[in-house]
Amino acid sequence: MGCAASTKEQSERSGLGQLEAKRRCEMGEQSGRMSMSLHEGIVYDPDELIKRLEKLDEERHFIQQQLNRAHNAVELADTSISEEVDVPANRSRFSRVAPANSSIRFPTIRAIPESRGFSSSTSRAAYDRRASGLATSSFGPRLSHASYTSNGTGITQASPNSPSQLLAMVRRGRKRAQYNSRRQTATLTVMHENENVLLLPRGGVYVKTRHGPVQFGIPPETIKDTLRLGVDVPKMYVVGKERFNLKFGTNTAEFEFPAYYNFFIKGSRTTVVSSAEAASVIRSVMDEAIEGPVEDELYQDSEYSPFVEPSIYEARPDLHAEIGYFKEPRNGRKIETDTLLAFVKFEPSAELEGQMVASMAFEDGSVSIHDRGDVYDVLVDGELVASVPDWLASAIADPPHILMPSRSLASISSMDDFETPEFGVTILGAADGFTPTGTTAGFVLWMRGHGILVDPPAHSAHYLRLNGISSRKITHVILTHCHADHDAGTFQKILLEQRVTVMTTRTIMAAFIRKYALISDMPIDFLQRLFLFHSVKIAEPVHFQGGSIKFFYSLHALPCIGFRAELAGKSITYSGDTFYDPDGLIELEKRGIISEARRLSLLHDCSVQESDLLMHEAGVPPIHTPMSALQQLPERIRSKVKVIHCSDARAEEGGFEKVRPGFEHTIRIEAEPPLHAEANSIVQILMATDLFRSFDVASMVDVLSVITTRSYAAKEVICSSGEEGAYLRIIRSGTVNYERDGATRELRYCDYFGEGELLTDAKLPCTAVAATRVEMLEMAREDVRYLFRRRPLLMSRIQQRARLGYTASWAAIGANSVFATFSMSQVTQLQSLMQEQRVRAGEVVWRKGEEVSDVVLVGDAKLAFRELAAVPGAIKEDLEPFGEGALLVNVYALENRLKHELTLNAVSEGTIFRIGGEDLLDFLDNNPGAFIWMRDTLVVC
């Protein structure tokens, strides 16, 4: 009693933090028992025990990440019953996934099972093309984080060690930065001066010819550019050498919607001009989009919980039959890759040595594309009309072109005016894939202030960041299906900052992985490492932020899900893409495509349910829902309907309100706040930071006992440079302008500052001003010191970061094309790992034959691989020293503890920053977007 009563008094008298005062009191009471920890003369060092405990905490966090990856692998494994086992047709429902007497195998994750039958709706040719595309989708020697069996081919890639391979990796790293962003340059000025050339807003180059336009590069939603500009949608497209833009996580050979437009609206095929290798990959991607998964890649029978009602399981879809229905010929034309696309491949020129040529003949002339390596020439009837740099076929406008409505600068400065809903949705896009003035359908589902992105449109992550929404507020994605207008933004979100959780069924996720392994040219096992997969079960609730989400299979041309979200007695239903039409469903039942149970479920339990908000798609039938079917709904349901995935005109004609994109149009459903809402909110913020995410429960309770909240008005000074550090500050809401050494950066949700000065007794080097109304979590100096003294490894990293040459490290980070895009939180984590070193001219940084143990970020020094000069074919540009911002890295060698194949020397005196190999790998585990840049190169510029 005496100790408890005096703790607060001690703190007030001495200025000690609450936790430190409590600790001293407890130590006094327990000093008489300390000898009990001594046995047979053994004395335990408390500091060493604390370090061991901290390492165990970090190891637990690492093992949890490994477990999550293992779950990904198991969920996506091709689980099949041995053919030797006789499985009765009427086996119990609990045996649907794993019969008691069966043999279950979990093979290596691969894109194509070893054997399969071919259905009437999926041709052997399409299957063979898909397998071939996965096997040949490499552009030069590609590596993942570890040795892998290349996409099911059985060929294991080894570490590159030949001089030519190493030179190719260096070249790739130097060139890759150029391929990403389209900024105004002298080259673009020349392009603008050519009356035959248009630079499309989203990316891509449009060249006018008398035989029809030719387009170089095909980013998502590209046909909306041409439709909006009022020019002809091209029928001829040239595929660039890099088909995937790493910076924006974007497919730059997205043929789905150009092909659909030309086929369904123009009645013609789309011509693809490409290399033979690219043609194989594009064919395979289109097969996946049009044919859908083959029958044994449809796992719907195992996607229901064994605990669901028998009637729910009985209503499961026959996805194979449903996909086949939507593929039926229209107007006498089959819907398959070869009826949508025609391929013209580059061949060696017979007249021009070293050039590749692709020619297209017309009744009154020809168009030919000459590939000169870095430039494409467009010749019409033998006359040159335009020259297009190869990199423009892969570059995306920077910043990216988006049609989602952004707030003005004035409104962004009052960002706190947007309070994330307890329950509701913010629409990012509401249009279909062909509406020129709108972004494709996608939205944020808000539950207790945290968001789930649902089918995010392309560049929506960038849009959210521009509007002040931290990526750490939106940690999950729902992927409804794998059409390009729904999955393009999902891959982008996966590559942004911390690891994201993707919620969908196993069938849809497997299709997504197959598709993006082809598109991105990344191995399947590597892709699975980039995110967490939550394999949802149909009709089984997924718990999120105190609410629940139940999923159902809609009726669409590809496997597609919708959902019903519930929170505090309120509900939001989203249809997903679906064909809802009572009369049409009766016809499908008569034809045996759906069962009676499936029809009744589609009518009453799926896209149409009584809800506080019912968002229903209203695209063009028969793939989508006719407006007349929604008009016939009972008033109690129809009154809650808001349509999405359609044009404004279509919504107006149907008499329904269409959801409106933008934060100001956020739909809020009033919901009672939960018990312990405050503590829960604070814990989630703490767990999102690298400072506290490995804290155990007892330590987190300590943190909650001393943390306080404080509000700052817009323009209020939070702290000033030169002051003594008093608090660790973590932003709960709002935006802070953080100024240091003449540079100002914006800090937002979960960003923190002030920790280094508390542990080093240094003066504050920054001035922080509230740009908006800000709510801050604050911890006093003594409490921070007490907590971090119990974590000496973490404290050491913080102190190391505080001592780091701030200006020099920021300059190096800012000069790197990948690190320059990092959030403040990511930069802070990175700086915690960096060790500054001064090198002299001629000094060896890495020596050939020594084990690879770290990576190097170049400061103001110059470094070079001397051996490259002796490689046949090396040119002057290959030998240029690596300057500020260059990251020298070999992730494959780090993970496999291989030896350096080249010696890295300092060409001039200066500063470099070393990052330990294990530290880097841990960092990449939490920042997958950086990982993809490093997987197949020796340098990231």
Describe what is shown at a glance.
The protein has 941 residues and is an alpha+beta fold.
Write structural notes for this entry.
The chain is an alpha+beta fold and 941 residues long. The chain folds into 4 domains: 161-184 and 805-940, Jelly Rolls (Sandwich), CATH 2.60.120; 185-392, no CATH class; 409-664, Metallo-beta-lactamase, Chain A (4-Layer Sandwich); 674-803, Jelly Rolls. 33% of the residues lie in helices and 21% in strands. The protein is built from 32 helices and 46 strands. It has a 7-stranded mixed sheet with strand order 23-22-21-20-19-18-30. It has a 6-stranded mixed sheet with strand order 4-5-6-7-10-11. Strands 24-25-26-27-28-29 form a 6-stranded mixed sheet, with no helix packed on it. Helix 1 packs across helix 2 and helix 9 (276-291) runs antiparallel to helix 16. The radius of gyration is 30 Å and the shape is globular. The protein starts with a helix and ends with a strand.
Layout of helices and strands:
Blueprint: H1 2-14, H2 18-30, H3 46-76, E1 80-81, E2 104-105, H4 124-135, H5 163-176, E3 181-182, H6 186-193, E4 197-199, E5 205-207, E6 214-216, H7 222-229, E7 236-238, E8 244-245, E9 250-251, H8 256-265, E10 270-274, H9 276-291, H10 310-314, H11 319-326, H12 337-340, E11 341-345, E12 347-348, E13 356-362, E14 365-371, E15 375-380, E16 383-389, E17 396-397, H13 409-412, E18 423-429, E19 442-447, E20 450-454, H14 460-466, E21 474-478, H15 484-494, E22 501-504, H16 506-520, H17 524-528, E23 532-535, E24 542-544, E25 547-553, E26 561-567, E27 570-574, H18 582-590, H19 596-604, E28 613-617, H20 627-631, H21 635-638, E29 641-644, H22 648-654, E30 667-668, H23 677-687, H24 697-706, E31 708-712, E32 717-719, E33 727-733, E34 736-740, E35 743-747, E36 752-753, H25 755-760, E37 767-770, E38 774-780, H26 781-789, H27 792-803, H28 806-814, H29 824-833, E39 834-839, E40 844-846, E41 854-858, E42 862-865, E43 887-888, H30 891-896, E44 904-908, E45 910-916, H31 917-926, H32 928-934, E46 939-940
Parallel strand pairs: 3-17, 6-7, 7-10, 10-11, 20-21, 21-22, 22-23, 27-28, 28-29
Antiparallel strand pairs: 1-2, 4-5, 5-6, 8-9, 12-13, 13-14, 14-15, 15-16, 18-19, 18-30, 19-20, 24-25, 25-26, 26-27, 31-38, 32-37, 33-36, 33-38, 34-35, 34-37, 39-45, 40-44, 41-43, 41-45, 42-44, 43-46
Organism: Strombidinopsis acuminata
InterPro entries: cNMP-bd_dom, cNMP-bd_dom_sf, Env_Response_Regulators, Metallo-B-lactamas, RibonucZ/Hydroxyglut_hydro, RmlC-like_jellyroll
Keywords: Cytoplasm, Hydrolase, Magnesium, Metal-binding, Nucleotide-binding, Repeat
